[in-house]
Write a structure and sequence with these properties.
Order of helices and strands: HHHHH
Number of strands: 0
Structural class: mainly alpha
Largest sheet: none
Strand content: under 5%
Number of helices: 5
Length: 79
């Protein structure tokens, strides 16, 4: 369940980043778009045996670290 909430939150955040505004209207629109898309693509999003909650929480907690290394790598490649 933690994995699904994390995927949902990241998807809505990416939608708002693409739009360029985190207003409540865009969050609501992102929720309205992401919810059916997650239902349609549920077989591709959710692994067949769900990982234990501890593993999913571990992945979600270290996601900012992975994004930081991605940004550093992009900056080094651009430099």
């Amino acid at each position: 369940m933690i994995l699904l909430v994390g995927i949902f939150a990241v998807s809505v955040t990416v939608f708002c980043l693409v739009i360029g505004d985190f207003g409540w209207q865009n969050l609501l629109l992102g929720t309205a778009i992401v919810s059916p898309m997650m239902y349609v693509f549920r077989r591709q999003i959710v692994p067949t045996p769900l990982p234990p909650a501890g593993h999913a929480l571990h992945v979600l907690m270290y996601t900012p670290v992975l994004f930081w290394y991605l940004v550093i790598d992009i900056l080094k490649g651009t430099w």
